[in-house]
Design brief:
Layout (H helix, E strand, L loop, with lengths): L1 H18 L3 E8 L10 E4 L5 E3 L5 E5 L5 E7 L6 E6 L5 E3 L2 E3 L10 E2 L6 E2 L6 E6 H6 L5 H4 L6 E5 L5 E5 L7 E5 L2 E2 L18 E8 L3 H4 L6 E7 L9 E11 L4 E11 L3 E12 L2 E3 L2 E3 L3 E15 L2 E17 L10 E19 L5 E22 L2 E23 L2 E22 L4 E5 L5 E16 L4 E16 L7 E4 L2 E3 L13 E17 L4 E12 L3 H5 L1 E3 L4 E3 L7 E13 L3 E13 L2 E6 L4 E6 L2 E16 L2 E14 L13 E10 L3 E10 L15 E10 L2 E3 L2 E10 L24 E9 L1
Parallel strand pairs: 1-7, 1-8, 14-17, 37-41
Antiparallel strand pairs: 1-4, 2-3, 2-5, 5-6, 9-10, 11-16, 12-13, 14-15, 16-17, 18-19, 18-49, 19-20, 20-23, 21-22, 23-24, 24-25, 25-26, 26-27, 27-28, 28-29, 28-30, 29-32, 30-31, 31-34, 32-33, 34-35, 35-38, 36-37, 38-39, 39-42, 40-41, 42-43, 43-44, 44-45, 45-46, 46-48, 47-48, 48-49
Amino acid sequence: MKRFFLIIVLVLIGLNLYAQTGSLKGYVYDESNNEPIAGVNISIQNSDYAATTNQNGFYSFNNLQSKQYDVVMSHIGYQVKIFRIDLETNQKIVKDIHLIPTPINLGEITVTSTFKDILLRDEPMSVEVVTSDQILFDNNITISDAMKNEPGVSVTRDGLWTTDVAIRGLSKFNVVTLIDGNRIETSTAHAARLSLIDVNDIERIEVIKGGASALYGSGAMGGVLNVITKSGYYSEGFNVGGSFTSGYNTVNKGSLGNVSINASDDRWYAKFSGTMRNASDAETPSGKLNSRFRDNNINASIGVRPTGSHELIFNYQKFDANDVGIPGGTPFPSAATARYISSSRELLSGEYRIKNLMPSLLSFSFKFYHQKIIRDLELIPNANAIINPGAKHVMNGLQIQTKFLINKSNLLIAGIDSWQRSYDGYRYKHVIPANQTVFEKPLPNSKFRSVGIYGQNEIQLMGKKIKLSLGGRFDFIKITNDEVNNPIRITTNGVINNTPPVNEIGSFEKNNVNNYSWSGNIGLLYKFNENFNTSLNYSHSFRSPNLEERYQYIELLGNTYLGNPELEPEIGDLFDLGFRYYGKKISFRISAFYNFLNNLMIDRFDYADNVYRKQNVGSAELYGFEFSIDYNIWGSLVTYANAAYVNGKDKETEGYLPEIPPLNGVLGLKGSLLKLVRMDFYVKAADNQSRTASDETETPGFAFYNFTISSMPIDIFMAKLSIIGGVENLFNKSYRNHLSTYRGLIVNEPGRNFYIKLNLTW
């Protein structure tokens, strides 16, 4: 089998090398000041060729077939540029391009999370994008913070460091998180998966809002969050560049330092970055929040292309955090103090890509990744006990994908997506007065395996006025677990008892469960004209119960939470209708959605055993809307606003669903002044949330103000310096995020925060 696969690959390589000739290269500049633009996305229509300009604005395509091409250039803040070239055999075309700046959102950024390079304005699905420029200009501790102002995306907090996101009222359980396309799977309680990614090393964040199981399988009912890290760039001849960023926050005395180095040629690139951060407990209007942390990250990537169409990419990431304060969490007793002693993530991935093998076979890619997350906690519920839970979560994934151009108006994407998560955990309970230590397994050693086969067909009709997207996926899921009888052993005054009485509540038999699930989507985009379009999406999605929901045994001297091996997958039917307009003075997007879900998984109290146990509870509905608008008042001055609303009902009890964000939105003013500085002033507001579940706390409404100002890049020898400063929560507003899990006396968000950043690039 291996020999057959190798022969096929060699044949494809041979065909590819034989068929391709010619090249296209050049530089991209800002038309207003003739400065080079880094990070411009460049794609060739009806092919799988894509490139990004380096820090000098350079781009290149090699080994192009002799034919006519339409080239698309896009970058946020600039009008999209499309031009045509006629490439003859062995011809080398050099073409420099000047992009026209635009102060408003024109949907001009290219997104890739739907498995193709496509302009945001042309994607039928609802997608939000945050770029590296936005992340640098704002103050963000985690990936979640970078998404805090995007409509339909809500930050769920357990402190400043431990955060996640909810999308359209569906929690992190229903959101698939990816790092460079690699799935992150870890514990659902205090997972901090988004906190284990360096926010200072992000190229962009793409969020699919709505059911995406047809693309990404189990867990994507609410959407997908794909974090794309900064990569290296190919260049014309040998080139070395880099950047240095430092910053400071007053609210938690937080400091950071980040350095990035890039080296490249036209055949290879190498990139390295590293970050160190340190912070104390954050100040709130009602006292200090247990939220200190220390962390560091390294990220390295290497790309090699022996020809313009063949590429090998290797990535390595290592993130470590220590002494991280955790102020909240439902499983913890209200008076407890908690922290991560340590938490780490390590990722190694390798990918082989072949592009434009034949006129109809645009690409073939093969990718493998290995990811390990280790978490060690300390919980002190009272003066008489210390509890130390911990676990190792290992992910292995394999992805194979092909793209076929059936004709100029029909693109087919097909692939195999396979991954496995392995869990190995422990829990020590130290009872101080009795000098006793109890060793338990909060989950049995277990594995979650998934193999999915998917296909996505993109069809353009009526001269590209209509775009029809049809997708389907079949998943085979296998879950296995070892037998566990808790407690495993008890040590009292140094005497070990390896056969203590078994607690039936927290013990599980050896088990083997198979799930077979299918999902599908239909998307339609209709262009009334070049600036105005409407979209309609339907998806049938699913979520198989994860390891914690099946087998968890959380007993931290407070309430007890148990899993349920008999849980059925959640099933969802999700609808989305949107209208978008992109004009020179004004642009807006509005969408409405309705989601119907079956077999919801919740914690329901079992009075017989006096525990909370996971149960399927029937059906629920979520519905709401999102709206965003940009208006160019004058010159580069823009006023902008967005709003999001969602309501969730349990159809069985007619009660409200828990953890639904209130009506919220942003109103702001941004722009540049005298071409010397750019500024952004906005108010973030939320209504009171009284539509709560029976055991959920209501939260009052709030509004707070943020202001950021940044210098335009200042030339310093061979480098450019940007100085960024701002203030968050300008009037030191005392408020609570409805999706936070803070416990005890301090339940408010941080108070006024002044921050400053220095960014030097060369």
